[in-house]
Amino acid sequence: MPDSPTHGLTITDVRSRDYRGRLTHPFVTARRSVEEVIGLLVEVELDDGTVGHGSAAETLAVTGESVESMRAVIHGPVAEALTAGPVACGLRGRTDAVAAACTGNTSAKAAVDVALHDAWARRLGVPLAEALGGDTSTLLRTDMTIGLAAPEAMARAAVSAFEDGFTVLKVKLGRDWRADLDRLRAVHDAVPDAEFRLDANQGWDPKSAVRIIRAIQDAHIPLQLVEQPVSKHDLRGLASVTAAVDVPIMADEAVNSPRDAFEIARSGAADVLNIKLAKCGGIGHAMAIADVAHAAGLPCMIGAMMEPRVSITAAAHVAAAHPAITLVDLDSAEWIDEPAPAGGYALRGDRLHLSHTPGLGFGPTATEGMER
Ligand SMILES: [Mg+2]
């Protein structure tokens, strides 16, 4: 063991364990329906025994990754890149090695990238948000998602979320633009004082998107923003919607990298960018997307997949560290009917309170049964 472990991050172990978490109710969007989160909990260990935590969920419909593919990538090229690299290497060198280990596989890479960041901040002895230049006391108010369903069921879910203290609701639409208007009307009638974000998950074509957004405005339902109304491949269509309506349009599936963010900003395709660690491969790329947005004067939202609490906590620390990230959509862990791994943050009403402990704030877990 070297005498000065603070000279770079020397990785001695990369391990993972299967994760399963039932949802309290199905999560339904225009693209998919999820009843259970399956994924991996990941740990990296440094030469001084410091352990960092990360996690990822299978999202075949979004990133194309399964538990099997994530396991293969983490214990194959990623572990090799981390343990075969130079002995002394800083965080940036390690996370660049993860990013370059193979193409794609952004959820698997994000899990390891987060674990590296957690270990790095733990070794520094500060919360991750602080290590990234932010502050754990930053106000982080999350919305609550209302899944796509029949209008009455969505209205009931909206009332329940509003009563739990969530005043900003993210309403999933995008299956049929005419029926979508009925869904939103029912939700608005049930909770007229809520603020609404809409997410069509690519479900509309550009002309339908403009039509429904105008119809919503005609119905005097105030909207904070509309997320990814059209196909992620149709940046021109996204730009046409953005130009045609007053409501801010947010890119989600269309922004997966700093380069995507630059292209969207350059072409004026959207007003807001939705950053997710699982889409861009980790914290470094997430901060770079936020930097591009900041330079272009675009605000960002930080979101997540339906994924374990470790991933959500990492996203919250990123939000607390970057001034361009002003919107928070981190409700996933509240859907999962499974307490472990506990820690990271406390949710009171709609506010996430980050724990002021080193790294992400998760305690040690039993390594028994972990795959290496
Ligand atoms: Mg979305």
What does this 3D model show about the protein?
With 372 residues, the chain is of the alpha/beta class. The protein folds into two domains: 11-125, Enolase-like, domain 1 (2-Layer Sandwich), CATH 3.30.390; 144-354, Enolase-like C-terminal domain (TIM Barrel, Alpha-Beta Barrel), CATH 3.20.20. Helices cover 39% and strands 21% of the residues. It has helices at residues 67-83, 91-100, 106-124, 128-131, 151-163, 177-190, 206-218, 235-244, 258-267, 277-280, 283-296, 309-321, 332-335, and strands spanning 11-28, 33-46, 51-57, 144-146, 168-172, 195-199, 223-227, 249-251, 272-275, 300-302, 325-328, 345-348, 351-354. The chain has an eight-stranded parallel beta sheet. A three-stranded antiparallel beta sheet has the order 1-2-3. Helix 2 (91-100) runs antiparallel to helix 3 (106-124), helix 5 runs parallel beside helix 6 (177-190) and helix 9 (258-267) runs parallel beside helix 11 (283-296). The longest helix is centred in the N-terminal third of the chain and has 19 residues, at 106-124. The model has no long low-confidence stretch (mean pLDDT 94). Magnesium ion is lined by residues 199, 201, 227-228, 252, 274.
Number of domains: 2
CATH level 1 name of the largest domain: Alpha Beta
Number of strands: 13
Please state roughly what percent of the residues sit in beta strands, choosing from under 5%, 5-15%, 15-25%, 25-35%, 35-45% or over 45%: 15-25%
In CATH, the architecture of the largest domain is Alpha-Beta Barrel
Distance between the termini: 21 Å
Mean pLDDT: 94
Radius of gyration: 20 Å
Structural class: alpha/beta
In CATH terms, the superfamily of the largest domain is: Enolase-like C-terminal domain
Shape: globular
Count of DSSP-assigned helices = 13
Instruction: Give the ordered list of helices and strands.
Output: EEEHHHHEHEHEHEHEHEHHEHEHEE
Tell me roughly what share of residues is in helical segments. 25-40%
